[in-house]
Amino acid sequence: MGKASGFMEHPREAATRRPVAERVNDWFEIYQDFPEEKLRSQGARCMDCGVPFCHTGCPVNNLIPDWNDLVYNGRWKEALRQLHSTNNFPEFTGRICPAPCEAACVLGINEPAVTIKQIEKSIVERGWQEGFIRPERPKFRSGKKVAIVGSGPAGLAAAQQLNRAGHWVTVYEKADRIGGLLRYGIPEFKLEKKYLDRRLALMFACAHPAIDAAIRAPLILQAVLGLEAKTIASAFLVSPAAMSKRLVRAKEKIRQAAIPFRIPDREELPRLLDAVLDAVYAAFAEGWIDAAGADPARRDLAEEALFLGRLVTELLPDAAEALGLLALMLHAEARRRARRSAGGEYVPLALQDQTLWDVRMIVEAEALIRRAAGLGSFGRYQLEAALQSAHVYRCRTGHNNWAEIAQLYDALFTVAPSPVVAINRALAIAETHDGGSGLAALPDCGADPRLAEYQPYWAARAELLARTGAVDDARHAYDVAIGLERDSAVRLFLQRRRSALA
């Protein structure tokens, strides 16, 4: 319950409508925001009625008195937890439900009923504003696959529950966008469609120009995909403590600047796109590292990133870099099954069983590369997709195209001079020329302290040193790489490479 005497002290108040002169110029929702102090007083009206018939009046049996009391006491996060315990999507029901709970309210016998519907909507909106709503990843995967036909409210709720239970869920929709009745059967003034596309809107809010460019991609990873600061830090080669502080500052900036959670207008999208693509790729890279799916923090990330990548290409079909990123991810994901042997051992690209590659993904990736090339511009992700394509071509045909690959890395290093690109460029140079040339092109660990804790740097250095005959130095580099590697299969591979040194 709320306040014992609240129903006698506070009259029922409902949200007011926007002025008619304003409403005739758009199709947006007609009601204005409801102030917090009024919400709390309305929560206080929930009386100690003994038998709360609002439970049975509610089609999903919401624990209405519980979250009314929590709102009255300002405990919004707990109120949201109670609301989500019975309702998958209160942002929908709080807008379009006819509120039979209010008709069942005991107070309504001789007084106006509690403003339940408005409180429900306000709880979930507060949850989005405060960042309380985050993805809930299953603790394990059952290995079972479930198909759901239709992406209306029932389909989406079933998909969410089944995914949380650990099953692999695919939702099929015949229309061009998800949502079913929510999108195509309910007018905008009752349910704005931005609430169906919230994850996409959240990505673009995190990419807002008011937020420091260096933290936009990490912020998207945490806000949209629910990654912990420790996992994000490893993707961006910084310490977890530093990343945590940066994320806190970025969230505070969103609150202070009142950055809106919406999908930007088409003309605004290009300037926000880079940060969104960087975040999607960082998520994919973290998921791709965990080939066996053994790390709960990284489980399903590659699939999530592919989903978000497709969303962006649907929103911006002529964005060459978005097409390039999707092609890059598809090329890499196509080889996932071949990256481990039947016994779970790591298999490098050159030795992979090509019959395990997903041909459909490769064909789709190649089509996206050609489509992006026809748009007349190029960038980092198109070049990385082209590199993936070149590697696949070499493995399939046996044609030595390392010179072309080295040229692509030269171009990539020009537009995106990162340590990761520099390391791969050095390896390509070694294949084209010799180990000494590759070693000379490898970044200096002393000049970039991030490399000291970066396993691929030490593994590449060991390989290049071995090619030059510096066996003792190669052993040392392998020792460092083995110590930094967290994947047991890759660690065993590195140990075998070290043992094979002359």
How are the elements arranged and paired?
Elements: H1 6-9, H2 20-23, H3 36-44, H4 54-57, H5 64-72, H6 76-84, H7 90-96, H8 100-104, H9 116-130, E1 145-149, H10 153-164, E2 168-172, H11 181-184, H12 198-206, H13 213-225, H14 229-235, H15 240-257, H16 269-289, H17 301-315, H18 320-333, H19 359-373, H20 380-397, H21 402-415, H22 419-432, H23 435-441, H24 455-468, H25 471-484, H26 488-499
Parallel strand pairs: 1-2
Helix pairs in contact: 3-5, 5-6, 5-9, 6-9, 7-9, 12-13, 13-15, 13-16, 14-15, 16-17, 16-18, 17-18, 18-19, 18-20, 19-20, 20-21, 21-22, 22-23, 22-24, 23-24, 24-25, 25-26
Give your account of this protein's structure.
Helix 13 crosses helix 16 and helix 20 runs antiparallel to helix 21. The chain has 502 residues and is an all-alpha fold. It is elongated and about 90 Å long. The mean pLDDT is 88. Strands 1-2 form a two-stranded parallel ribbon.
Condensed summary:
With 502 residues, the chain is mainly alpha-helical. The chain has 26 helices and two strands.
Helices and strands, in order, run as HHHHHHHHHEHEHHHHHHHHHHHHHHHH
Q: Poorly predicted ranges (pLDDT <50, ≥5 residues)?
A: none
Number of strands: 2
Described by the principal axes of the CA atoms, the overall outline is: elongated
Helix fraction bin = 55-70%
Strand content range: under 5%
Question: What is the residue-averaged pLDDT?
Answer: 88
Structure annotation, total helices: 26
- Give the radius of gyration: 27 Å
Strands across the major sheet, in which order? Answer: 1-2
How would a crystallographer describe the biggest sheet? Answer: 2 strands, parallel
Pairing-aware structural class of the strands and helices?
A: mainly alpha
What's the end-to-end separation, in Å?
A: 77 Å
